[in-house]
Amino acid sequence: MAEAPDTPPLQEPLAELERRLIDEYLRSAGQDPDEVRARHDASSHELLAAASTYAASRLAEVETRAHYVRSLRGEV
Asked: How far apart are alpha carbons 27 and 23 in whole angstroms?
């Protein structure tokens, strides 16, 4: 089954936020996110792993807060 060329690919609901959090982490470490992603050395892999961990923890925080707000509204 071929994909329609005018249909955008599906993305995770928080994918853009995750990417921005990773970029924020890399910038706070004094790095350019595009340059770090282009490199393939051990240092860049370590930075990306740390940035991913940071983003995951922040996303968990966002999801926890959203769940809390939904519970206050009686939606859960």
From this structure: 6
In a domain, 4, yes or no: no
User: Counting beta carbons within 10 angstroms of the beta carbon of residue 49, is it exposed (0 to 12), middle (13 to 18) or buried (19 or more)?
Assistant: exposed
pTM as predicted: 0.77
Tell me the per-residue pLDDT of 7-17, one tens digit each, with 9 for 90 and over: 777 678 889 99
Q: CA–CA distance from 59 to each of 5, 24, 35, 51 (Å)?
A: 31, 13, 24, 12
Range of the domain at 35: 15-72
The total domain count for the chain is 1
| 61 within some domain | yes
